[in-house]
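Progress report, Aim 2. The chain analyzed during this reporting quarter is listed below.
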Amino acid sequence: MSTDLITPPAHASADWTIPQDWAAYTPGEHAMWDRLFARQAAMLPSRVVPAFIDGLDVLRMTRPGIPDFDELNARLMKATGWQVVAVPGLVPEEVFFDHLANRRFVAGRFIRTPDQLDYLQEPDIFHDVFGHVPLLVHPVFADYMQAYGEGGLRAAKMGMIDALARLYWYTVEFGLIRDDGALKLYGAGIVSSYGESHFALDDPSPHRIGFDLERIMHTDYRIDDYQQNYFVIDSFEDLLHQTRDADFGPLYDRLRAAPLIPVAEILPTDKVLHAGTQAYARAKVPA
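Predicted structure tokens for the chain:
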């Protein structure tokens, strides 16, 4: 998402969508997908929420090569009424929200190059499709994503997009979930990252804190490295309930009146599951 963008590129439709043009992918691009997929598939089963693995199976994403959106959407539409649409890159917030509200997930069509194996600034098709789309098979998470899009359109009218973006960041992108007494991954930014898939669960550095809607929407985050806070939901059902039933008007009023909570700060009201050492982040600070 980006507020810097106003009009779509000349080759895009008014809603910013473009053809995926699956036939144009090169053997090298398909090989890059397979390399990334194999690496994540080997380590995620014991770490990711089972619904993610179920989604991979339902969508047949275990087959080699970059998925063809036409084939993918036939299965996804049957499961939950969602579809994936290709876009040329980052899109304006309100365009993004409108697509989500109408059960369309926007995805970049490009894939990273070998020198970007472990990090790239703009999300590529592996992050967008491998990371996000499997959970859209889960009916409750699919409903949450639609509700988020609807909430985003309302937030735009109230000038509160930044607050709602923090909710997306700490749930859809970097969320953890309790599953049978253990913490599991579900955020796309984690499950599509080999390094963060380990860091988020195993490293003593980050805080792991129980989900609190207002706290999350009031908490700053970082986009340049692994997270210093991870927030943990009890279930997708609880996540949907807490966000769909919240009265966002008074919540936004409270958020406007107070400064952001700094990254890595623990509050007296937090339900702290693990107080991190923050050693990883501190080691990155220049002396």
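The longest strand covers residues 83-87. The CA atoms of residues 1 and 90 lie 5 Å apart. These observations will guide the mutagenesis work planned for the next reporting period.
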